């Protein structure tokens, strides 16, 4: 790499331990700049991916404290007492087009370059744009707004209530974002992103790509967006929503609300807690409520599939749980609810008899056992002549596991 020149004394800036961080050198520094850096000074980045980065200031000669080393390892301490010259300068630009920025206690508004930048906010409420390149951005203290822009970026919010947006034009490798402490807002980009909420009540949106989303601690709001996403709620009472794609959801511990939309195949595990799982998609969904008695809410306005392999499944139904067909529940106080059940030899017979029960007797709910499964049919529009408008399969269950009392 070509070395830029600064009038004065000679020094070195070197990075090690991370192949994404470039090694820089500069030929000279001024005497005033050298006096602001003391041998033995350290800078530590306390959270997120940058927690591995340590900046250490050493002497190039016994009399000249002009050497800076950035390595990836254990955490140490923050700025020394005499680094005002470096922090006030704000940024170190080098000839490969990249930039190192270290903020101070004031509000910072800064941007990267077309290269792979390292941008670190200070204690204020910072606004940072990574621009093009695979950037490493850390907000640190304060309520920061951090943009990855283009490239596969690595962004950590640090302390405070931060807003983080990965690049809308990133490649398929995607970016990495961690809110850390505070109630953060995280937005994915066009690639396959990793979005981690950390501590606090976070709001995370995956957008495009096959994203990995984790709320971690706190009562989080998580939305997968387009793509085949993997979503973990973590601890806390979370709200999770899928949208298109073949998604996998583990709601985790807490009383969660999971809403399935879109036409993909979605797998949901509610985890520990009294969960509410809303099945409102057009695809084949497989649901486990997890521990405790859960509520399964069904939104549908078209007849259930004639092929049983396309039915939505509840795979761990227990007799103390509840089904709520949304359209029926809305008028339950003015229309009587009725229930019938029977055993059928096969699914076509079950489908035919269930529609007959609805049309002839006005049954709202019909449960049909076929082998080791129970198919639940519901008339949700009040037009009995049209038969069932919605349905769900209770996998591995019998008629002993369901009754009128299970419907809300």
Automatic annotation (TrEMBL):
This is Calcium-binding protein. One of its GO terms (cellular component) is extracellular region. It is found in: Secreted. It comes from Phenylobacterium soli. It comes from the Bacteria. InterPro entries: Hemolysin-typ_Ca-bd_CS, Hemolysn_Ca-bd, RTX_toxin/Mannuronan_C5-epim, Serralysin-like_metalloprot_C. Pfam families: HemolysinCabind. Keywords: Secreted. GO terms for molecular function: calcium ion binding.
């Amino acid at each position: 790499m070509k070395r830029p020149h600064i009038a004065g004394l000679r020094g070195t800036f070197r990075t090690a331990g991370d192949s994404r961080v470039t090694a820089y050198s500069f030929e000279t520094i001024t005497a005033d700049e050298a006096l602001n850096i003391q041998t033995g000074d350290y800078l530590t980045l306390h959270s997120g991916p940058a927690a591995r980065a340590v900046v250490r200031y050493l002497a190039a000669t016994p009399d000249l404290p002009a050497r800076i080393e950035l390595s990836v390892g254990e955490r140490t301490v923050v700025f020394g007492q005499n680094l005002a010259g470096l922090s006030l300068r704000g940024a170190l630009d080098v000839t490969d087009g990249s930039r190192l920025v270290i903020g101070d206690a004031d509000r910072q508004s800064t941007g990267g370059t077309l290269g792979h930048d390292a941008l670190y906010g200070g204690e204020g409420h910072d606004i940072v744009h990574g621009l093009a390149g695979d950037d490493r951005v850390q907000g640190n203290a304060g309520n920061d707004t951090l943009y990855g822009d283009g490239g596969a970026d690595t962004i950590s919010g640090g302390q405070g209530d931060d807003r983080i947006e990965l690049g809308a034009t990133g490649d398929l490798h995607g970016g990495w974002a961690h809110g850390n402490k505070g109630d953060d807002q995280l937005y994915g980009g066009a690639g396959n992103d990793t979005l981690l909420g950390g501590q606090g009540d976070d709001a995370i949106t995956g957008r495009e790509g096959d994203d990995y989303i984790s709320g971690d601690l706190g009562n989080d709001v998580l939305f997968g967006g387009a793509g085949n996403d993997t979503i973990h709620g973590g601890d806390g009472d979370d709200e999770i929503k899928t949208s298109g794609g073949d998604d996998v959801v583990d709601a985790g511990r807490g009383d969660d609300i999971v809403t399935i939309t879109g036409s993909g195949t979605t797998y949901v595990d509610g985890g520990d807690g009294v969960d509410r799982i809303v099945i409102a998609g057009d695809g084949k969904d497989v649901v486990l409520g997890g521990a405790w008695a859960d509520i399964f809410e069904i939104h549908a306005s078209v007849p259930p599939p004639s092929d049983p392999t396309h039915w939505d499944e509840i795979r761990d139904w227990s007799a103390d749980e509840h089904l709520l067909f949304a359209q029926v529940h809305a008028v339950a106080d003015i229309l009587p609810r009725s229930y019938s059940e029977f055993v059928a030899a096969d699914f076509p017979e079950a489908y035919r008899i269930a529609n007959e029960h609805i049309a002839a007797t006005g049954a709202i709910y019909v449960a049909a056992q076929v082998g080791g499964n129970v198919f639940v049919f519901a008339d949700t529009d009040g037009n009995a002549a049209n038969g069932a408008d919605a349905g769900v399969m209770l996998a591995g269950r019998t008629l002993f596991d369901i009754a009128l009392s299970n419907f809300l």
